[in-house]
Amino acid sequence: MLINRIAAWWNPITLVLLLTLIGACARPTPEPMDPEEIVFRSVDRMKSLSGFHFVIERSGALAFLNEEQSFAFRRAEGDFVAPDRAQATIRVIGPGLVAEVQVINIGEIQWETNFLTGEWQELPPDWGFNPAALFDAEVGIQPILEKDLSGLEWVGLEELEEAPGELLYALAGEVDGERLYQLSFGMMGPEKMAIHLWIAPETFELYRMLITEAPHGEDESTIWQVDFWNYDQVVDITPPGR
Question: Is 241 part of any domain?
């Protein structure tokens, strides 16, 4: 009796309706667009954001944080809140050690924990890695994407491992390194570098930016991966101890 009921339900009409429903629910494949238009809309979207989460990772040749080349940048993860607040945990590599430093930026004031004692200290102006400046709408990544890209090409539609099933616009080109050199206190650039971008269709949110520096001498290439998540997420960023 039960088998007969299932057979009666599972008829060609039901199958067609089911396939139609599945097709209606499936995401349409994004249409290719002009790469410059994609970047323009992505920059516009980023400028309108109230905040986001970010992860910056370096691989390959070392990128030093000081003139003595005793401490190198490895990774930073944190949050940015427009227009000028950021907090991050920065992983630093030194002779025989791997340490994590906490950083808070509010306007032009920056605090950092001592990687030996863990105590907070206010840094001199324009000193040290400043994630808030990196994402500043006037001097940061946004104007770099607007003014410093060249040879931008459409690569195709690609997925990121962290966002399975989501097709993103993939673009490739070159970026002038001078502005990045100033922003990163000499860790990146100043020569031209290869750049790849992954941007979401419809929202034009930048998911990933991958910058590859050419090797110097016998060194290997330095690769910078910047990921953006939780768009318009706003966290409370206050001075240390408050």
Answer: no
How many structural domains is the chain composed of?
Answer: 1
* Chain mean position to CA 89: 15
Q: Tell me whether residue 115 is in a domain.
A: yes
Sequence-ordered alpha helix ranges (H) in 50-189? 131-134, 141-147, 178-183
Cα-trace Rg, the chain: 23
Residue 236 lies in a domain: no
- 5 domain residue, yes or no: no
Say which CATH number the domain at 90 has.
Answer: 2.50.20.20
pLDDT tens-place values along the chain, 242 residues long: 444 544 444 454 444 444 444 444 455 787 789 999 999 999 999 999 999 999 999 999 888 887 788 889 999 999 999 999 999 999 999 888 889 999 999 998 999 998 788 899 999 876 767 889 999 999 999 999 999 999 999 999 999 999 999 999 999 999 999 999 998 888 999 999 999 999 999 999 999 999 999 987 777 999 999 999 999 999 999 999 86
